[in-house]
Structures are given as C-alpha cells and as structure tokens.
Amino acid sequence: MTRSTPRSLAVAAAVTASLGLTACGSDDKDDPNATNLKVELTDKGCSPSALEAPAGKVRFEAVNNGTGKTTEVELKNKDGIILGERENLTPGLSGDFSLQLDAGDYVVYCASPGDTERTPGKLTVTGAAAAKGPTDPALTKAVADYNAYVQEQSDELVKRVDRFAAALRDGDLKAAKDLFGPARLPYERIEPVAEAFGDLDPKIDARVNDVADKDEWTGFHKIEQILWQKNTTKGTKAYATKLVDDVATLDAKIKDIDLQAAQLANGALELLNEVSSGKITGEEDRYSHTDLSDFQGNLDGSKKAFDLLKPALVARKQQALIDQIEPRFAAVQKGLDKYKRSTPLGFALYDELTPADTKTFASQVNALADPLSLVAGKVLE
Amino acid sequence: MAERGDEGTAKGGESTPRRGMTRRRALFTGGGLLGLAAAGGAGYATGQADADTGGGAAQDAVPFHGEHQAGIATPAQDRLAFGAFDLTIETAAELRDLLREWTRAAELMCAGRPTGAVAGHPQTPPEDTGEAAGLPAAQLTITFGIGPDVFEKDGKDRFGLRSRRPSALKPLGDLPGDQLDPARTGGDLCVQACSNDPQVAFHAVRNLARIAFGSATLRWTQLGFGRTSSTTRGQATPRNLMGFKDGTNNLRAEDTTGMDRFVWVGREEPQEWFRGGSYLVARRIRMFIETWDRDRLADQEAVFGRSKVSGAPLTGTKEFDTVDLDIKGSDGVTVIPPDAHIRLASPEINDGQHILRRGYSYTDGVDPRTNQLDAGLFFIAFQQDPHRQFVAIQRKLGVGDALMEYIQHTGSGLFAVPPGIRPGGCIGEGLFR
Q: Which of A79, A85, A307, B173 has its CA 20 to 30 A from that of A143?
C-alpha cells in the first residue's frame, strides 16, 4: 500500500468520510468574507423559509426565542448529505456553523429530534456554478471501460484470495506460498481505486510499519510474515477469513463506484509512484520478496488507464505526449521481462534484482511518470 | 564582530591534568607546557568573562550562559550541523570531564573565538582546527543533549546515573511509518550547532568531536542547509523542500507562557537537576522529491491544507488567517481535508499540545539504490515531554497524514537537553552532584 491514502481519488473517498457535528470557529463572526444568514426556530420550522447567499463562505446562525417544538437545524445538499447542523437549541439558545458553499440549491431543515415530517426551507446559493465534469464522449467511454476493468480485476481478486485462503485453511504451506503473489496481482493493478475506500486498503495491504498498533495488523502482509518468517500456515486462519471478507467488501463497494476521468489519469500516476517508492526498493513484500510481480501489476494498471485515455488525448492534439509516453512504458516492461520466470509467481524474487537494474528501473519509471503527470491536465483542458 | 585571529595566547591559567585524560586532551588542556590552552580549572571562567565582554566579542554572538541552553528559544539561524555521539568511557566522572571540556570549548566558539591556538608550536598540531579563523560567530549556538542509554542501556545502570534520569527520557518506541536506519538513529550525546555561517556550525561539531577522542565517537551527523521554521515573530516563515511554508503556527519564543507550558521542563519534574531543561527530538525525514514534484498543485495543497504560494490555509486568504478545521464545502467534506497535514498536526486535534519546531532542510546526495535525491527535512523539535507531545502527534500523523505518502522517517534521536549554564558552570553539572 502507499504510505497513506493517496489523493487521486479523494472525491470518491470523501463520500465515506464521516460527517460529524460541525463546530464553529468563534472568529467566524468577524470574517468579512462570510455571508451571515440568520434564521429563527419557530413551532413549524424555521423563519424565513427561503434564504439566499452568494457562493463562498456562509455563516449560518439559528436562534430559538421560545419554541419548544423545534430545537435543531440541519443544512443539507441536494443529495441529502448534512453539511452542517446544530442540535439542542432549547428556548433562549442560539448556535451557528460556517460552510464554504458552491452555487446551487440547499435544504434547511428545522425540527425536533426524530421529526421528519416538517416542510423544509430552502437556501439558494448564487454565483458561478461548481465545475462540472467534462462530457466529452471520448472521456465517457474511457471511464466506462476503466470501470469495467476495475470490476473485472476485483472479481479476479476475490477468486484468487479465495484459493489462497483455502490453501491456508488446508495447512498447505507450499501451495499458500505459491498463491500469495498471484493473489495480490489484481489488487496491485487497481490499488488506487481500492485505496479510495479509506479504511479498506490498510486492512488488506498494510505493511508492518504502516499500522499504529501491531496487534491490529491484518491482511496480505501479516499472512506473508507468518508464511515466510515462521514458515508455517499455523496462525493464519483468522487472518485468511478476514482477508476474504475484506476483499468481498471491497468488491461490493467497487460495484457502486463512480469514477471520473481525472481519477484515471491520476490513478495511473499513483501506480507508478507505488513502483518507485515500494517495489524497486523491495519494501513492499519484505518477507516473500515477490515485489516484481506487484511491480507488474502496478505497471499493468497504469498502462491500462493510459491506453483508455489515448483517444481523448488524440482529440486534444496531444499525439506528441502519447509518443513520448508509449516508448517509456515499453522500456520499463522490457526491463521487467528480463526477470520473468516459469514459476508459479511468474517472476524472479527481489533478491535477484541487480543494483544496476534497480537504478535503471528507478530512472525509467521517473522518465515515464513525469510526462504521465501531464495527462490529467490535458484531458481536462 | 569578533575576530577569530591566530590567538596563540593563553586565556586560561593553570590546569591539573586528570586521570584518564587522553594525550590530545592533555595537550589541549595542559596550558603549562606551551602556554596555549584556552582551558583549565578556574582559569576558564576568566577566559569566558573575557570572551563575553572583551575583544568586541561580537554583536552577532548569542550569549552562551543563561537559564536555558541557547539554540532553543534563539531565533532559528540559517544553518545546522548536528552530531550524535556514542560514549566509549565507563564512569560518570569521565562523562563529567568530557562535558566540562565541551562547555569550555563551546563558550569560546560561541563568542567567536577558537577553542585554542590555531597556530602554536611548529612541531605541534594546532589545537583549533582553524577553518573558522577570521569568521564571526554568526549567531553560533551549541546545544547539548543526553540520550536515554546514558541512564540505562540493555537494562544496565551503565554509569550509576539511573536514579537521575529525567522522567520523560524513555525511548520513543516504534512509530507508524518508520523506516529507521540504525546508522542514523540514537546516540548517547548530541550536539546541535546552529549558525548563520555553515562553516562556523561545522567547525563547532568537528572540534567538539576532536576534543571527545577517547571519550566519545561520532555516531552520525547531519548538516542542514536552510532553516524550515521561524521561531520568533520577527522571522518570515521559510519554505521546506516541498515548496510550502512550514511552521506558520509554530510556537514563538516571545510567547513565554507557551514556552513554559510546552517547552521548558518545570517544577513538575522530580529530577531537580533537570528543571529548566527540555527534550530534543530529531527525525531525519526523507522526502520522495521526484514523486512529490509530479503531483498536481491542487493535490499538493490538499496534502498540506495550505495554498502553496501564499501559505494561507485553504479556509483563508492570508498566511496567518485562522485555520478553520470545521468549515465544510458543498460536498459535505471539510475544506481542509480529513487527512491534511495541518489538520493532523494541529493542537486542536492533539489535546492542545504544541511543540517548538526548529528543523532544517538537508540533502545528502543521492540514494545509492535508485539514484534519486536523498533530501528532506531534518526535523528538530523541543518539548516538555516527548511522549505527551511529539510521540502522540506522530502516532496520528504516521497513520493518517496525507503527507506520509511522500515522506519517510529514516533517522531518529531523543535527547534530554539539560538546563542552561551559569558562568563558571558546566553542562549537566547538576547530574553529578
């Protein structure tokens, strides 16, 4: 895994972020850039019931001057996500929260706890509309095809992890070791997507030094440590069951994922960063030394996303960028092909990687990743 | 300005060679034979008074003596030379002697003077190595620290000092995300030399290392070429190697209440000798420069939670605007992302804890494995309790900070920094009473 949740899919990750109570900065009142909106809690809801503000920082203040029937206020976006709220506003109390709002329609809901029957109020935020995703057909197709690729890899991951877990349950050490690298391969191809679901990637793919508490360490690398360091399948059963569950949860979440074109391009880059910071230094699979198989997975996933974006790049007259990137993908693959072996893993172990080749890979991956980092900006132009 | 001339004249008086003294140190301190030593017993105090007041000893010299050691609340200088040492001696008395000699040499160097003759007897190696001759002190401060192993190593009371151990001087332990190189970690003693002149800073560590021959050997060193924190209100906030302003919300030395609450060890410390001290945490934080440099601007800003050029928090427009961790955007997510560095490092998230950061950018050439730049931040922080402060904060950062994707902690050190030294006193003298 990366050292932390990567940012390329932050939009998707955001949906899973917790939406707790919004506390308010006491200095907000003095902020000249904020629009102040004031509502009064009434028996029926809030007054006024229709509010307006320009896009930007909005400070929302609710006052209860005496009603016992309405004690809380929520501001929601049009998807029903609560952006800010104040509760327990009993008579005589007031509360506020601040938000940074794009143009659009929002819902102001004032009620008592549990009461969902009130007529909601409305907040209209005016100004420049939030940037919409591009609707270019070339990009739409790229996203749809990449979605299909992610689903396919996720299904494959579920299958391979099931087989790996079965070998662990059967206590078949050799089979388990043979299946470890191949089971990881589909995961490595789509890792940035998996990482978008904040807590799942650490459960599945954390290395020992990534976790805050070693007792809570689970996933591939925990099992790897037992298999290679202790040379046994004993003690892996619970971890195997958990890994099966976690990849199943991932698979279910991936079915609902809504990717965007920028995420493809950034994901392609993330995968190469994975190679530079983890695989070519042998830090990823430090017990089994199966890093080169992971390397291939990262490279596959990166290449796939790039290939799918090529028509959009061509449409934007970026053939020169394509011509720069393609031979560099080929150069990395050619270097990696030298280490292909007819073993269950399909690759030599990391120990066989010569220092000279490590350096070559590092410089080739850099040379590839640099122009690749320009793709997102080009396709979104 | 102090002139670092070829001072061949003795500043000190008589000195009595001690048992167990090395040959070099015997020469260094033994003023009698060649009449050169800037050291020795009672004499050095006279020498020091000279250094502090006489000879125009530099309007750019920072006073060495005080309630606290210099180099903590001192406005951060531009350059750093840091050395960690392993002791090779066996008794507390020998340790005391080493610290006494270091004190003496540090007093001179901080006043812009050489540690001894730069050119003395033609048949004798010069006492001071000479590369700072003619250079002013350039705000040189030399700050000394003592590592946990001095009080107990492998369960053994190595120097009979276990009962004097500062209460919070316990190893930092494993922290999430660590990839520590043993060759860049730990140490029995540390010397932090800061100056506005890199050669003056290096000269300090080099000469202290030379004085320590026979008592301590260098374990690791680190040069820092640019300060990454402002520690006083008059200083502009510098940028780290990621191009971001760092330390905007750092503690400031003028905030004496804050310094007393978060930096200086006070009456709560049962080890009386250590009151007025502090704890130094050093972390060599490698940045994956190549990867960072190809990250898009919006993401770089999201990682820190600040605008790259202005340094303003994403919830404001100017550098010192209040960081509003709660304000949300239209998507329901806080404008400063949940994993932004300034969020996870903020006092609000960390039980109100602050630390005084005083780090430096470093580069050590290229990583021999990959030929990628080995560069980053040599993080130094001072605090009242490293476990309540640094460790608690780092446990959060190591797991959740978006920045962890682009950095790796590759070296570490924890040192108790004894209180300041009165004229005539020695570093850590309370430890040996």
A: A79
